[in-house]
Amino acid sequence: MAAWLRARVPASRVLVLPSQTPGVIERFGISRAEADRALQTVTADGRRAAAAAAVNTILREMGGPWRLAARVAALPGCFWLEERAYHGFARHRRRFARWGITPACAEPGDGQP
Known about the structure:
By secondary structure, this protein is mainly alpha-helical. The chain has one domain (2-105). The protein is built from 6 helices and 2 strands; from the N terminus they run H-H-H-E-E-H-H-H. It has a two-stranded antiparallel sheet. The longest helix has 16 residues, at 76-91. It starts with a helix and ends in a 22-residue tail after the last helix. Residues 107-113 have low confidence and may be disordered.
């Protein structure tokens, strides 16, 4: 997913950094447990989000139709479903490798910002 984002969103809008990048979790005030548990985002003004809320933050930054998707996903009932889906996907993320989806930490050269 990190590669998909990098191909579609300029780094000036969304900078994708694996939590294994030296110093990155300390730089953004994220604990190792938080980073291991879910996707984390930190906005330019320092607001943090995790899991489905982090996905919505990224979608808003992508703009266009993605911004609308983030608005819909943030609705209470939709967000509850999105949060469950996120954690289900995260729990089984390694199984998605057969379809070419690999965690950013498993991608070659991703240790460098």
